[in-house]
Amino acid sequence: QLVDSGGGLVQPGGSLRLSCVTSGFTLDYYAIGWFRQAPGKEREGVSCINNSDGSTYYADSVKGRFTISRDSAENTVYLQMNSLKPEDTAIYHCVRGGCTSKGPVNYDVWGQGTQVTVSS
Predict the structure, then answer these.
(1) 35-89 pLDDT, tens digit each
(2) Of residues 4, 1, 2, the one with CA closest to residue 114
(3) What is d(CA 82, CA 64) in angstroms, rounded to the nearest whole number?
(4) How far is 9 from 18, CA to CA, in rounded Å?
(5) Which of 96, 88, 86 is nearest to 114 (CA)?
(6) Which residues contact 67 (CB under 8 A, 6 or more apart)?
């Protein structure tokens, strides 16, 4: 199970940290990623982090602004989002699966989603 949280309303330029708390499986055995879905837009793989070597992927749209990290002791993956823009507004879901140079793949478990709204 994945439970994601941390979304909210923030002004442009602000920051949020999303959390994905995992349970029922060993986090060290899986990569975890984040997708986002905005109204009228295609689902976008935002970021992911591998379990094997900690390597990461970021979509070009968030590179340099978002940072993904994992804490195995807390069974949690974080997505630190800085310099937020209105176009970052979406529902963000964490997913369990694989992580490649093209983003999250082969995901089989989804979090329920957390709404991020960037607006003045």
Answers:
(1) 999 999 999 999 999 998 999 999 999 999 999 999 999 999 999 999 999 999 9
(2) 4
(3) 9
(4) 13
(5) 88
(6) 79, 80, 82
